[in-house]
Structure formats: structure tokens, C-alpha cells
Amino acid sequence: MSAQDDIKDQVTKNKVMLYMKGSPDFPQCGFSANAVNILRACGVEEIASVNVLENPEIRQGIKEYSNWPTIPQLYVNGEFVGGSDILTEMYQSGELQKILK
Known about the structure:
CATH class: Alpha Beta
Strand order of the largest sheet: 2-1-3-4
Number of strands: 4
């Protein structure tokens, strides 16, 4: 399977899928930590994640898959939601909470 196939499989099989640096328990950058904190504040208990630092093919592949240049990237129900800044805005407006229900 190619990295694109792996990514498609991951985003379709997990309700909440986060591509990040580190893990939800040990984020390795501030933007990834922010994304995890927002998801937890929204009541998400199970965050499926991929540490892009451990897999260069996925790290590059996810940027191509979403046509989005930065990490973290959040997918909900197979749809790309956005990165850290977008998650912050959506959380503050209440829009993210609606998507996650």
C-alpha cells in the first residue's frame, strides 16, 4: 500500500484522526499540543493519531492528500477539518463542537 492508501484508510476508519508531531499524550510541538487540548476540551476521549515524525512518507503524503502544507491536520468522519489555527477559530465559534457530536 502507498502512503496515500494508508492515509485514506486511516481517515475513513477513524471518526477523529489527527496527524501530528508526537502523540496525544506526548505532543512534540506547540501546534500539535493545541490541537489535542482543543479536542479534549470538546470531550473527545479517543483520538486516533499518527506521529508524522516517525514516518516521513506519511508526513509528506498527508500534505499532498489534503493539499494543506502544515501539521497538525485533523480529519473528522473522513473529512479534512484543518490545522491548529483553524481548530482554534472553530472551537471559539462553537463550530468544532457541532462537527464532533
